[in-house]
């Protein structure tokens, strides 16, 4: 009993979601209502012309089927027949041409909306996402928009309109038996199609899941090509992809086999209905109750009735498949960011750039607290460094300041304003970040630097490159600033990528800078040059440095040592060495390692 209830609930939810999808499509149609109305009018004219063709054909046949009478070629009727055929074709094509803009504009707007929405979601979503699966859902979803609109405007509405016209003509002109049998055939056909197709949908769900999984695994594997090669896991990746595709193949085969059974049942229903009608129509000709023209007209009307009906099964399956694909895409749109601004959140009123952490505590979802009661201040123009063991919460501090996450307790203030109560975009616009893992766009070096300030002039871009000491490297490249950096910057070394990232942030020139172990991949010479450049900028920027290599932060105005989520000690480099605590131990350990390497 419970199993049956679950099935009913699932079916109800599915229908509810289908209606929701249609409601979401309506605004896109209303944006171009004039074109939709014109396309509908052309559709009606085309169908009226199409249904009138059998009537004219009947008159032609009856005129020619006369005995003992001088036959006259019914030129008027023949021309009318040709004109109706031409009108049907013309208005169908006009309908298609007018509606094309509606289809593709809707695809454009929905794809843009999803893309924009993905950028509004919080960092936790993007850390958990599977890029291959998401891109596949978006591709299928936007294509489904076009398909659904086309089906409704070019198939469902015309077919329904034509069925009503044909049944009406049969009812008015002939015995109600013909219309009744035709209508029962239509109803029986549609009922069977809906029932069997709904049963088959489980295969489509499984196919989609497996296809998304295979696509995600493939993208993951190719993005991490170097890691695969380092560990000789090529065959493992191939086998993993093969297993998923084998499962997909088995389900796809079941889906196709059940479809052939459905096609046969549909064909049988139509064959039985048409045969019954034609038997009685032929008997009417024999009994001289109907003319030969009437038989031809009935046959032509049945062809026009069942031709669109014959494709209705395929269309219905497409509709259901596309609803599934669109539901997956709209699921993305329904996801909301865990990080929300308060209503009417004001923008940051930027002053000198004073940053204050006031009794800050934070825990990632479902995990123990990373930070506990953290309090410190970065005065304008100061450089404060955060050090500590791996997992101590150093990078978390940077993410909280940038407002990738909101604090669990306490507050972070910029110029006395609680950033949790401010507009996110205004806070993030005032902060520049150079992360440890720097990723570049697969564009030119110039594009990647200029990304920090899209309206920057060439001189500004080159000055930023000079300040980050990457200009000499760029000058040696054959294409200079036009050199493509490759997917995720794979054509550059770690140090080159980080210097480009520093140039990008310097071009943005925000009042607050965050360097999350940004110099960790630089060689000694580049590190010293970048440190020199950053020292010259310290009077203009409030700087937070997350450091692993202590040699990079000896000139910091304050060094904060994190341990177990709290500040274990703080002070200048000299003060911490004299204290002979955790910082001093780290310093001497790294100094010994450096001497050994030399």
What does this structure look like?
With 598 residues, the protein is of the alpha/beta class. The chain folds into two domains: 21-334, ABC transporter transmembrane region fold; 345-430 and 551-598, Rossmann fold (3-Layer(aba) Sandwich), CATH 3.40.50. The protein is built from 19 helices and ten strands. It has helices spanning 2-30, 33-64, 75-120, 123-128, 131-173, 176-223, 225-230, 234-286, 292-310, 312-334, 394-401, 424-429, 445-450, 458-467, 471-476, 494-508, 524-537, 573-579, 582-597, and strands spanning 355-363, 369-378, 383-388, 409-414, 417-418, 431-434, 512-516, 542-546, 558-563, 566-571. The strands form two sheets. A six-stranded mixed β-sheet has the order 6-7-8-3-9-10, sandwiched between helices. Strands 2-1-4-5 form a four-stranded antiparallel β-sheet, covered by helices on one side. The protein is elongated. The N and C termini lie far apart (76 Å).
How does the SSE layout of this entry go?
Blueprint: H1 2-30, H2 33-64, H3 75-120, H4 123-128, H5 131-173, H6 176-223, H7 225-230, H8 234-286, H9 292-310, H10 312-334, E1 355-363, E2 369-378, E3 383-388, H11 394-401, E4 409-414, E5 417-418, H12 424-429, E6 431-434, H13 445-450, H14 458-467, H15 471-476, H16 494-508, E7 512-516, H17 524-537, E8 542-546, E9 558-563, E10 566-571, H18 573-579, H19 582-597
Parallel strand pairs: 3-8, 3-9, 6-7, 7-8
Antiparallel strand pairs: 1-2, 1-4, 4-5, 9-10
